[in-house]
Amino acid sequence: NAGVTQTPKFRILKIGQSMTLQCTQDMNHNYMYWYRQDPGMGLKLIYYSVGAGITDKGEVPNGYNVSRSTTEDFPLRLELAAPSQTSVYFCASTRTSGSEQFFGPGTRLTVL
Amino acid sequence: DAKTTQPTSMDCAEGRAANLPCNHSTISGNEYVYWYRQIHSQGPQYIIHGLKNNETNEMASLIITEDRKSSTLILPHATLRDTAVYYCIVRVANNAGNMLTFGGGTRLMVKP
Q1: Cross-chain residue pair A42–B96, CB shorter than 8 Å
Q2: Using a CB-CB distance cutoff of 8 angstroms, which residues of chain B are in contact with residue A48?
Q3: Which of A31, A97, A103 is the closest to B93 by Cβ?
Q4: Within 13 Å of residue B86, how many CA atoms lie on the same side as its CB?
Q5: Of A27, A107, B2, B59, which is most buried, counting CB atoms within 10 Å of its CB?
């Protein structure tokens, strides 16, 4: 199993540009999550999904959108990039509520 | 979810046991204690979790006090590769969103 994979690893965006961060898991997990981590800080939850077709907001959803059309994929969309969105983005998945979360390697995004 | 308090940083000699404390004095009866760690620039990694009994796995042991207001993560024989930020998280396991709230964590430095 590859686990949780994320692409791209790095990206630089200009203010106002848009992009999609990809996340895929091959463990057939129902639950998937997007976190962001600012320098020197802990992780904050952006959006989560408890299954295909179901998504919900986390702690810091403003400026982001998600979709969950399949069990495997959970892309994160930035429509109008802003410098405040410069961060490292982690995707995670888990089999059931309460079990361990598996994290991807992260996407380092810089908005200039 | 209950808040947690952890020391900002700790040192440990290689080969010795690392004992990482966590205070969670407002923990509720249905909240579990989870430990994750994050090695520099990588995604967080699950270590262990428990409700009220002590737990042990191949990575670590978790000791929870009888009143459940504090806990200690024990790495029995720390190695240089255990240098990381360790997060203690308290949450309800059957939370539909299964959200993890990451605070500041403890930066553990294992020294030769």
Answers
A1: no
A2: 97-99
A3: A97
A4: 31
A5: A107
What is the C-alpha to C-alpha distance for residues B4 and B85, in angstroms, rounded to an integer? Answer: 15
Cα distances from A103 to residues A84, B60, B71, in angstroms, run 23, 19, 24
Q: Hey, are the CB atoms on A4 and B45 less than 8 Å from each other? A: no
CA-to-CA distance for A46 and A33, rounded, in angstroms? 8
**Tens digit of each residue's pLDDT (9 = 90 or more) over B70-109:** 999 999 999 999 999 999 999 887 665 557 788 889 999 9
**Residue closest to A88 by CA, chosen among A66, A112, A109:** A109
Give the contacts of B11 (CB within 8 A, at least 6 positions apart).
B108, B109, B110, B111
pLDDT in tens, B54-70: 999 999 999 999 999 99
pLDDT tens per residue, range A29-70: 999 999 999 988 889 999 999 999 999 999 899 999 999 999
Q: Does A75 touch chain B (CB under 8 A)?
A: no
With CB atoms and an 8 Å threshold, state whether B98 touches A98. Answer: yes
Specify whether the CB–CB gap between A31 and A50 falls below 8 A: yes
Contact B112, B80 (CB under 8 A): yes
Using alpha carbons, list the distances in angstroms from residue B47 to B38, B57, B59, B89: 10, 8, 7, 11
For residues A69 and A52, the answer to whether their CB atoms sit within 8 Å is yes
Of A97, A101, A103, the CB nearest to B96: A97
